[in-house]
Design a protein that fits this description.
single chain, 187 residues, alpha+beta, 6-stranded mixed beta sheet, two-stranded antiparallel sheet, 4 helices, globular
Length: 187
């Protein structure tokens, strides 16, 4: 009888994990602190993301950027994110695979019951650590929107919010766009 091979020796676990997640068929997945998680948003979640996209898409086009939910790699960690929205320069999106958070202009996460704490705490910390300049958290559970900016190794140093749904939230430069959050309320 043979024993199972011990893959813990001499294997780059981060690289193996990220290779595996890129080769999953069907559903989208992401890696959160080493755990592979499916990305399967509800329709209300998709509705909230779409509303934010509509508010920023004109300015995104003017900036020569693309907004989407492409993969973001966090090298040196066991994290591979599929954000709800990331805004990236067009030239980086062309033919690009995964990008880095510091290559984005804005990252938006919309909470669901299954991932609210991850978006509020873990992703906020990691996006700051990896230099995402703006992180917009649309918290459907709390009914609020919060903009985090000025990233550093210990987190974001500037916080605008939380603003209750119904308030207007201003995205700073380079966007200079107001987001009316009243449509985000599902009530």
């Amino acid at each position: 009888m043979t024993s199972a091979p011990d893959y813990s020796q001499g294997v780059d676990a981060e690289r193996a994990l990220k290779f595996a997640v890129q080769h999953v068929r069907g559903d989208r997945v992401q890696i959160i602190e080493g755990i592979i998680e499916p990305v399967s948003p509800t329709w209300d979640h998709e509705r909230a993301a779409r509303l934010v996209r509509r508010r920023i898409e004109g300015r995104v086009d003017e900036l020569g950027c693309v907004e989407g939910s492409g993969n973001l790699d966090l090298p040196g960690s066991s994290n591979w994110y599929a954000p709800d929205i990331a805004v990236v320069p067009e030239e980086l999106a062309k033919g690009g695979g995964a990008l880095l958070p510091d290559q984005t202009l804005l990252v938006v996460e919309v909470t669901s019951e299954s991932n609210a704490e991850t978006d509020r705490v873990v992703k906020r910390r990691r996006y700051a650590e990896y230099g995402a300049p703006l992180y917009l958290l649309v918290d459907r559970m709390e009914g609020s929107a919060t903009l985090f900016s000025e990233p550093g190794r210990l987190g974001y140093t500037r916080v605008d919010g939380p603003h209750p749904f119904g308030a207007v939230l201003r995205l700073p430069a380079p966007f200079e766009v107001d987001i009316d959050t009243s449509a985000l309320s599902s009530v």
